[in-house]
Specification:
The complex is a heterodimer of chains A (583) and B (171).
Chain A lengths: L2 E3 H11 L4 E4 L6 H6 L7 E4 L3 H15 L3 E5 L3 H15 L4 E7 L15 H5 L5 E4 L3 H16 L5 E7 H5 L1 E3 L19 H13 L3 E5 L1 H5 L2 H14 L3 E3 L14 E4 L6 H9 L2 E5 L5 H4 L10 E6 L13 E4 L2 H14 L8 H11 L15 H15 L3 E5 L3 H9 L8 E2 L10 H11 L4 E7 L10 H6 L5 E6 L4 H10 L15 H7 L3 E5 L2 H13 L4 E6 L32 H4 L3
Parallel strand pairs in A: 2-3, 2-4, 4-5, 5-7, 6-7, 9-10, 9-12, 10-11, 12-13, 13-14, 15-16, 15-17, 17-18, 18-20, 19-20
Antiparallel strand pairs in A: 1-8
Chain B lengths: L8 E10 L4 H11 L6 E6 L6 E10 L1 H13 L3 E6 L6 E12 L3 H12 L3 E6 L2 E8 L1 H14 L1 E6 L3 E4 L6
Antiparallel strand pairs in B: 1-3, 1-4, 2-3, 5-7, 5-8, 5-9, 6-7
Classes of the chains: A alpha/beta (583), B alpha+beta (171).
């Protein structure tokens, strides 16, 4: 058989695995691979401006399509710059393949130019990683890497390829389906566990479905099954930040997001429920608040594909280790088999309606200033009016929480945000990745004035590929969430949380060939948003909002669900050392 | 404010793993990254084709943490199996140590007597020293080393614990 170079084998594997897009940045140690994709007929390469941007673009691509995102970067700084995005993908269970160049095998360990121990550095921030020292191993490794990245609990897989391995030759045969020796992710639920779950649902008077990113990862059928399960049981539904969109925000059973900046009704319902059915969520600290006061009256079922998520922070009564979609299908079938009919939960719903009446997301519109909540609500309204498929990404901070609270999501894969790692600089590149994968969708990055600057260089990437991405900055001239915590905890000593020396965002946009729009006051808001949506090509909006608005409701760190702060008047301005020590 | 610690228990975990580059770093790194303790860790190839290694880890932590350690180890791609020997019925646990003792006269005779009691073997000797080889559970070796310390301990090398479940079946 004719032999092919390692670089050719790698590219052939990508083609065989259905890869159509690679986000990357060239450099010395990946030149052979870049030559192999030169003018490639089916693989489109998106040249980024910084390798971190490539990783978040790949995440945006993956989260909006369900397909793995692929990154190609060089050795040394190329690989180290990718580390934040790799970690982000691990925390949020995003399927991603990161191909890194490496110095030639004979130079490994000699502190060669642009050498870094990439497998060492990424060992604990990837789902798995490989250093391939033989071109004959490339095909099996690449196929295995895609299998690992996309099955079980998805995650990032790194493949480090020394330059001489890219040039050396080996025969290539496309690997057939294989049984992995040791990697056997859970999939089908255990019948006994499903029976027990059905039994618990039958007995519940105050059930709640607590859903997370796992429902999105499981695929669109899981979102359909979630609707069915909710309607069959009549149970209220809440979700983590990562799970938004799996259940329609317009459904009457929807309580809104739970947790630190969740709604009052979602958190009180969790607190008072007698059965919590956790579907693809992981009892994160943003969700639970103070652990010893978390949902004290409830039995808990935890459906998760990753056994290590079970009993990690919260002890549960029934673990179901399985794909959440398959588990929901089995639970629904189990309910059917018992002749289950929707129980009368009117007493439970009456209590929930009482909590809802607090209108915990309410805010007062300002006469002269745009309230950030209003900006999001108007943006939501305007996107609905277009009837276009809309994908929202965010950076990290107050604007992210306001977006989660005030933008309604009705379908999965339309909400892309950095939940676990909380990476400022995620949202804009993620929007570019989502736009590449969904050229006809309206893709908007909701950003803050501080976060947007963390990967602002990618303006050039959008320009180069004529991607009509929209950036909507809620500009309050602060790192708002830091400032908010300083108000809550450190008597408003604003240590380094003021955004000094901000650029003129409109001029900055124009310098990159974008359209820049500034919205200064409430009377300009609606028209400004409309102009953003109607202007073809990339548009950046600098929306000046009330500078000192804070994000409420809020469960302060170390507090229980029942101790939510509903408005600024409840802020004391200082905290105990125990509370200060929490994140 | 002071930082509180929870009650710990000691567990011996036995793992079979694919024998590949970086596997030890993967296991050891998981312990350090997640703040778990390692009392001892041993690793050696156990297959005829050099494909599989057994890693024995002695760790300690509250029961909830031990469960997490097992689940986290099980999640690593090259890990085939994790068995908690401590929770899996009776098991045999052994460690080997080489113990170098220097001394003359009565000390030398006493060292030999103690070694006899512990069934330690002399594997090297000079006029003024011995190296003893001793195997047994960790506490037996601890007491042997403590006695030798009173006589004239020079240095000790220990392998760390290996273990297998009792009876004719695989764990």
């Amino acid at each position: 058989m004719a032999e092919r170079s390692g670089a050719d084998i790698l590219v052939q594997c990508l083609v065989d695995l259905g890869v159509d897009t690679v986000f990357g940045y060239p450099g010395g140690a990946v030149l052979p691979i870049y030559d192999a994709i030169y003018n490639h007929p089916t693989i489109k390469h998106i040249l980024v401006r910084h390798e971190q941007g490539a990783t978040h673009m790949a995440e945006g691509y993956a989260r909006s399509t369900g397909k793995p995102g692929v990154v190609l970067v060089t050795s040394g700084p190329g690989a180290t710059n990718a580390v934040t995005g790799i970690t982000d993908a691990l925390m949020d269970s995003i399927p991603m393949i990161v191909i890194t160049g490496q110095v030639p095998t004979q130079l490994i360990g000699t502190d060669a130019f642009q050498e870094a121990d990439t497998v060492g550095i990424t060992r604990h921030c990837s789902k798995h990683n490989y250093l391939v020292k033989d071109p004959g191993r490339l095909a099996p490794v690449v196929h295995e890497a895609f299998h690992i990245a996309t099955t079980g609990r998805p995650g990032p897989v790194v493949i480090d390829i020394p330059k001489n391995v890219q040039i050396a030759t080996a025969p290539y045969t496309r690997p057939e389906g294989f049984e992995h020796q040791s990697y056997r992710p859970a999939s089908a639920p255990d019948a006994v566990a499903i029976d027990a779950a059905v039994e618990m649902i039958l007995k519940a008077d105050r059930p709640i479905l607590y859903t997370g990113g796992g429902v999105i990862n499981s695929g669109p059928e899981a979102a359909t099954l979630l609707r069915e399960l909710a309607h069959r049981t009549g149970a209220p539904v809440t979700s983590t930040l990562m799970g938004l969109g799996a259940f329609p925000a317009t459904d009457p059973s929807w309580l809104g997001m739970l947790g630190m900046h969740g709604t009052y009704e979602a958190n009180l319902a969790m607190n008072q429920a007698d059965l919590i059915v956790c579907l693809g969520a992981r009892f994160d600290d943003r969700v639970t608040g103070r652990l010893d006061a978390f949902a004290p009256h409830s039995q808990k079922i935890h459906v998760d594909i990753d056994r290590s998520s079970v009993n990690k922070t919260v002890a549960v009564d029934l673990p179901v280790i399985a794909d959440v979609g398959r588990a929901m299908a089995a639970i629904i079938a189990g309910l059917d088999a018992r002749g289950y009919t929707k129980p009368d939960l009117s007493e439970w719903w009456a209590r929930i309606d009482g909590w809802r009446a607090k209108n915990s997301l309410g805010y007062d519109d300002g006469a002269t200033e745009i309230m950030p909540q209003r900006a999001i609500a108007d943006l939501y309204k305007a996107t609905l009016a277009t009837g276009k498929d809309t994908i929202i990404t965010t950076e990290v901070g107050q604007h992210q929480m306001w977006a989660a609270q005030h933008f309604g999501f009705d379908a999965p894969n339309k909400w892309l945000t950095s939940g676990g790692l909380g990476t400022m600089g995620y949202g804009f590149p993620a929007a570019i990745g989502a736009q590449v994968a969904n050229p006809d969708s309206l893709v908007i990055c909701i950003a803050g004035d501080a976060s947007i600057q963390m990967n602002i260089q990618e303006l050039g990437t959008a320009t180069q590929y004529r991607l009509p991405v929209k950036i909507f900055i809620l500009n309050n001239e602060y790192m708002g969430m830091v400032r908010q915590w300083q108000e809550l905890t450190y008597e408003s000593r604003y240590s380094n949380s003021y955004s000094d020396s901000l650029p003129d965002f409109v001029k900055l946009a124009e310098a990159y060939g974008w359209t820049g729009i500034r919205i200064e006051g409430p009377q300009e808001l609606e028209a400004g948003i409309r102009q953003m949506i109607e202007t073809p090509g990339p548009v950046l909006v600098d929306c000046r909002v009330a500078k000192l608005s804070n994000c409420f409701p809020m469960i302060p760190s170390g507090a229980a669900h029942t101790e939510m702060l509903l408005d600024p008047s409840q802020v004391k301005g200082s905290m105990s050392d125990e509370a200060k020590a929490l994140v | 404010m002071h930082i509180r610690e929870e009650q710990s228990e000691r567990h011996v975990l036995s793992l079979t793993v694919t024998n590949e580059a970086g596997i030890l770093a993967r296991i050891a790194g998981l312990f350090s990254a997640r703040g778990y303790n390692i009392e001892s860790l041993t690793v050696a190839d156990i297959g005829t084709d050099h494909q599989i290694s057994r890693i024995t880890v002695v760790t300690n932590g509250p029961p909830k943490v031990i469960d997490q350690i097992i689940a986290q180890l099980d999640r690593l791609v090259p890990v085939h199996r994790v068995v908690d020997l401590t929770d899996n019925g009776p098991f045999v646990e052994r460690e080997l140590a080489l113990v170098k003792v220097a001394g003359t006269g009565d000390d030398r005779i006493e060292a030999l007597r103690i070694a006899d009691v512990f069934r330690a073997k002399v594997v090297d000797t000079t006029i003024g020293s011995f190296i003893f080889e001793i195997t047994g559970p960790t506490d037996k070796i601890d007491s042997f080393v403590a006695l030798m310390r009173q006589i004239g301990l020079v240095e000790v090398g220990r392998t760390g614990v290996v273990g297998l479940v009792r009876g004719g079946k695989e764990a």
